[in-house]
Design goal:
653 residues, 0% strand, 33 helices, 69% helix
């Protein structure tokens, strides 16, 4: 399937604000026309391919599947499948007198006419009974020793069962209608489009949405197989697919909530211990104005070993002052762990410090200086890291009560609201922070992040410009503004801000990564990949440039015979992205699509399902898991459909 090229879009979120416009980009999912040869020549259907063929136009409304009325009234030659698809011969019943062929066909035709007459009078179950009588007559009169008669009767059997199925459906007996569809598909002709389409309709009406999705995939696999020569040439088939794209999307939408609920239960338990990547957390910390002062203070406090030794020397009594001193020392130890990049240790230590003083007013009051406020602030942050949003918000609120003029605390509280999906509350908190300090650069930067989530680029641009008026050397603001200007088709403006950001921090991986993204949008793929490679060298733990480099590789027009090698290189880069950050969902989505496109057999396709499962184990919210869950669902349905059709590969060769 053709991968479509599109602009990298910024999709930030507050906890991983550190990932910035490039890290949160929905990855470039397109490839040049030449890249299509990789997929058409090696495999057949990637997940993107079934969402539909390149020529399909998005449906503006949900189309109703054909009702099947024409099955009953059409001519027999139009109702039956080709002889080559008929599988099971009719077995004769011994010991009974047999009608000759002419008499038998006349009797069958009479019952067929009787059934159609009932159908026209809307006596659907009577019609089904007439078709059943015709089938019983064939069963009684079949002569297995006569291949010519057997072939002809088998075609009539398929027609009669199909017509009876239509009558059962019309007569509101879906179980019998579905049974007849299965009989045609499993016994006689698995390629029978009308029976499979009716089966899809019956399954959907019974709320059996996943089996219905498998039938959609089966119909499309058969369609692609039928038109494989045309598709291999890159031409659209002469007819439309048997099922509209809207039906596939509709079914996935119905199945997803239940699928995501099951994964969400697992994620709820895992996220309490699962921190974002070290790179993500470092970028988050750097997004706050207070970062440098925190780190300077942590350096001044001394090493972890020194702090732990001092902690051991403190009185271990239960007096308020003794507990307060131990909590303060633990707070400083936790902060030093942050300085050292030991975020899991920092979380454990800071939560231990908070537990010593939680609910103990007499201890909180005797903590020296602003230690209790700082403990609340750091506890709020480490709780936020693991999506303990309620606890984080409470800590920030208590800290804000102690320091009502601290705008940065309110900004952090707004970030928690954003991750909780409460954008209106987040906006109110940003307004509150700016009312406390009209020059709170953090509030402007993070509110711009929210504006970009809301696709409100005009307001985001205003916030970023104001942020840069206050802090002209704010690298993150320059990069975000470059992202906004790129989205507004202002590459010259984006380049100005990138140049400024690079002059401030020439060793920033994000600067080089975004330079590559800008080049990518201008179709300068080789140059873009060079920038991504620079970004990788500057920060090997930044997953974004690996993903973008893979997509630049796929978009580069291939040299003859190099398509497979380029695809393999893209796979390698995507795998490196996952190694750098196992929680980077874009890498799983892109790698899964690419590997499915290259799958030579169904075992390879099943490996893609395992890859999606691996990615889903790192998701912490339903928003994070939606894309992966959709891709896994569709891939599984494709594999199940191919298995049902006894296909060993998706290949159209």
């Amino acid at each position: 399937p053709q991968l479509r090229r599109r602009l990298l879009q910024f999709k930030p979120f507050s906890l991983s604000i550190c990932c910035l416009w490039s890290s949160n980009s929905s990855a470039m999912s397109g490839a040049s026309k030449e890249t299509q040869a990789i997929f058409l020549g090696v495999a057949a259907i990637a997940a993107a391919g079934l969402l539909y063929f390149a020529y399909s136009q998005p449906a503006t409304e949900t189309k109703k599947l054909p009702s099947g009325d024409d099955d009953v009234v059409s001519k027999r030659s139009q109702e039956t499948s080709k002889t080559s698809n008929v599988k099971k011969p009719v077995e004769s019943t011994t010991g009974e007198s047999k009608m000759d062929d002419k008499a038998l066909h006349a009797a069958i035709e009479e019952l067929d006419k009787k059934g159609k007459a009932y159908f026209k009078n809307k006596q659907f179950l009577q019609a089904a009974k007439a078709f059943t009588e015709a089938l019983a007559l064939i069963e009684a009169q079949a002569d297995h020793s006569n291949p010519t008669q057997t072939s002809s009767l088998n075609r009539q059997i398929i027609t009669l069962i199909n017509n009876r199925s239509a009558m059962y459906e019309k007569g509101s007996v879906p179980e019998l209608a579905l049974e007849d569809c299965n009989k045609i598909l499993e016994v006689y002709d698995m390629t029978h489009t009308k029976a499979r389409t009716r089966k899809l309709r019956l399954l959907e009406s019974s709320n059996m949405f996943y089996p219905a999705l498998v039938e959609v995939c089966a119909l499309q696999l058969l369609f692609m197989q039928k038109h494989r020569d045309t598709l291999r040439m890159g031409l659209p088939p002469s007819t439309q697919p048997p099922v509209p794209q809207s039906k596939l999307e509709e079914l996935i939408t119905k199945i997803l909530p239940e699928q995501m609920d099951s994964y969400a239960k697992i994620a709820e338990e895992k996220k309490k211990e699962m921190l974002p990547s070290d790179y993500t957390l470092l970028q988050l910390l750097k997004s706050y104005t207070g970062y440098n002062s925190w780190m300077a203070q942590a350096a001044k406090d001394g090493s972890v070993q020194q702090l732990e030794k001092e902690l051991e020397g403190l009185p271990q009594s239960e007096e308020a002052t003794a507990i307060a001193d131990r909590a303060s020392k633990l707070m400083r130890t936790g902060r030093r762990h942050v300085y050292d990049g030991k975020y899991s240790d920092a979380r454990e230590t800071l939560l231990a410090a908070y537990k010593l003083v939680e609910g103990k007013t007499e201890v909180q009051k005797v903590m020296s200086g602003d230690d209790y406020a700082r403990l609340l602030e750091w506890t709020g942050m480490v709780m936020h890291w693991t999506y303990e949003l309620e606890g984080a918000s409470q800590c920030y609120q208590e800290c804000s009560d102690l320091e009502p003029l601290n705008a940065e605390i309110v900004v952090k509280q707004a970030g928690v609201a954003m991750d909780g999906g409460n954008q209106d509350e987040a906006l109110k908190l940003f307004e509150k922070a700016l009312s406390i300090d009209s020059e709170a650069a953090d509030a402007l930067l993070h509110r711009a992040n929210l504006r970009m989530l809301q696709a409100n680029l005009v307001e985001a641009e205003k916030d970023l410009e104001r942020c840069l008026e206050i802090r002209p050397n704010h690298v993150l603001a320059h990069l975000r503004l470059a992202a906004v200007l790129t989205s507004k088709n202002d590459p010259a403006g984006a380049k100005r801000h990138l140049k400024k950001a690079e002059s401030i921090d020439p060793n920033s991986s994000e600067v080089q990564s975004y330079r590559g993204e800008l080049l990518f949008t201008q179709n300068e793929f080789a140059e873009a990949k060079e920038q991504f490679e620079k970004a990788m060298k500057l920060e090997p733990k930044n997953p974004t440039p690996y993903v973008n480099a893979a997509l630049a590789e796929l978009n580069t027009p291939p040299q003859p015979g190099m398509q497979m090698e380029m695809a393999q290189e893209a796979c390698r880069l995507l795998e490196e992205a996952i190694k750098a950050d196992p929680q980077f969902q874009a890498a799983y989505v892109q790698l899964g699509q690419l590997k499915l496109g290259m799958a030579a057999d169904l075992d390879s396709a099943r490996a893609v399902i395992k890859l999606y499962d691996q990615g889903l184990t790192y998701c912490r919210t339903k928003d994070e898991m939606k894309d992966l869950c959709s891709m896994k669902l569709l891939t599984q349905a494709q594999v199940d459909a191919a298995t049902m059709l006894k296909m060993e590969t998706f290949s159209m060769q």
